[in-house]
Amino acid sequence: MNDRFPPSRPGRRSVLAMLALTPVAGALAGCATGGSRQSPAAAPTGSAQAGNPFGVASDAPLEVVVFDGGYGQEYIKVPLDLYRKKHAAAKITQSATQQIQQSLQPRFVAGNPPDVVNNSGSNAIDYGALVGDKALLSLAPLLTAPSWSDPAVTVGDTLRPGVVQVGTHDGQFVVLNYSYGAYGAWYSTSLFEEKGWTYPQTWDDYLGLCDKMATAGIAPWTYPGQFPYYMFWWLASLIYKAAGPEVIDKINNLAPDAWTDDRAVAALRAFEAIPANGWVLKGSSGLNHTDAQMQFLNGKAGFVPGGSWLENEMGDSVPKGFDMAICRAPSIGKDDVKPFGSLCAKAGEPYVIPRSAANTAGGLEFLRAMLSTEGAENFIAKAGTLSSNRDAKPPKDAKHGLTSIDAALKEAGDNVFGITVDTRDSRLWKDIANLMGRFMNGDIKADQLAKQAQSLTDKARG
User: Fold this and answer.
1) Given 90, 256, 268, 412, which is the most exposed site by the fewest CB atoms within 10 A?
2) Which residues contact 196 (CB under 8 A, 6 or more apart)?
3) Torsion from C-alpha of 431, 8, 11, 418, nearest 10 degrees
4) From what superkingdom does this record's organism come (predicted)?
């Protein structure tokens, strides 16, 4: 469930963590809550009424545990204050840890978990076990409750596309992913302005631009060969643009003809021109993520794959006036299913309410406060990434990359998609990503990538 971010923010790169589970984590994965079928505790409640839709008892204690990662803890203070103002008699305890599983799994087993858990990072409690044990409270009531900032609008109506779908397991919405990130590739708008280049909307124009870059001594592409899964989002974006959600759904659900669908193969064949023309920076196969991003920032490459975190991750290394922006997938052909401006985007930074928590009503109320416009805009300002609340706006002094993502999401509307192979089968994700690395190196062609990815998918499906 975690979005894939850099090591400084472990929740972002859960892919690697999932591939290298410690013996302790592996042993506990099958017994997240002791193997029992959890029943909700008798949570103290008051009367549901205007301003208190879940009937939170005024003096019921509330405990919130936050993952101590790159987002920090500052962002949680505003929703805590909002909750405190409405429930002044309640004792509120908030703590943070990077050892979510180690510190909280025993409490799940004992039946006394916190009321709200930010189950994120490389030491998150296994979601498969939590769902299998029915240890998580359904968050469906949250969706129909009046939003904190505008009671005339439900909380569900304030959420960005895909938030509910990503948090739904076995037909139940049980995970609220609070952040919202875009994935794909990046370019420098200031470089484009300097060279007189315009970001292309068609694939032919895209290839023409890459040729101009190469002529100017700039490699059109670089990528982190040590972490080739970065290419997954951009190649998937081309597939979504050409084929729409049907093929992406097949990829996510490990369907028998996912990668070998003619439309998916056509998109991969289009991108094959990049490595075939020698338009990948030499040595990219040996780069890690920050190395590749530095090549991009130093003007050695025109495009680099990545997600919303890139600008913050590189910090002071980003040259003044670089003005990076998220790329939109150009049109592959006239029969494309989705319009220009479609985007790979997904909610992350998961929050859950344990079913056996003492104050489940208070947990729902706290999530409602988090999703307030005030709470969400504070999160954007403090964390440097968007919130799953679609009404929350970046601050006026937001960095260029963040404002470009916000604008791109507005342009995309509902034409967004997410890749979930990583959370469904981390080994498959890694194996297909390795094929994409070979594809970028020119070692295999598009047809081979599609055939071998499908073979791996069929094997993983069983």
Assistant:
1) 256
2) none
3) -60
4) Bacteria
Task: Clarify whether residues 162 and 205 are in a common domain.
Answer: no
Give ∠ CA 329-334-338 in degrees, rounded to 5: 45
* CB distance 325 to 318 below 8 Å: no
% of the chain residues with pLDDT over 70: 90
Please report the beta strands in 360-406, taking only residues with DSSP state E, as ranges in sequence order.
386-387
pTM for the complete prediction?
Answer: 0.81
CATH number for position 191: 3.40.190.10
Contacts of 81-87 spanning 24+ positions with Cβ under 8 A: 82/148, 82/369, 82/372, 82/374, 82/375, 83/362, 83/365, 83/366, 83/369, 86/51, 86/52, 86/365, 87/56, 87/58, 87/59, 87/60, 87/62, 87/362, 87/365
- Same domain membership, residue 194 and residue 119: no
Do residues 363 and 338 share a domain? no
3 domain residue, yes or no: no
Query: Whole domain around residue 424: which residue ranges?
Result: 185-345+420-461
Number of domains the chain is built from: 2
Same domain, 325 and 440: yes
User: In the 8-state DSSP scheme, what is residue 352?
Assistant: B
Average pLDDT of the chain? 90
Sign of CA dihedral 3, 203, 268, 446: negative
pLDDT of residue 31: 53
pLDDT value of residue 72: 84
When pLDDT is cut at 50, 70 and 90, the band that residue 69 belongs to is confident
Contact of 418 with 237, CB cutoff 8 Å: no
DSSP element (H, E) containing 187: strand 176-188
- Written as six digits, the tokens of 105 are 């799994």
| pLDDT given at position 46 | 64
Q: What is the pLDDT of residue 270?
A: 97
Sign of CA dihedral 206, 297, 120, 404: negative
Same domain, residue pair 442 and 326:
yes
The span from the CA of 381 to the CA of 122, in Å, is 25
Please indicate, yes or no, whether residues 140 and 266 belong to a single structural domain of this protein. no
**Whether residue 33 sits in one domain with residue 122:** yes
CB neighbours (10 Å) of residue 460?
16
Residue type, 221: W
Contacts of 438 (CB under 8 A, 6+ apart): 444, 449
Q: Are residues 113 and 75 in the same domain?
A: yes
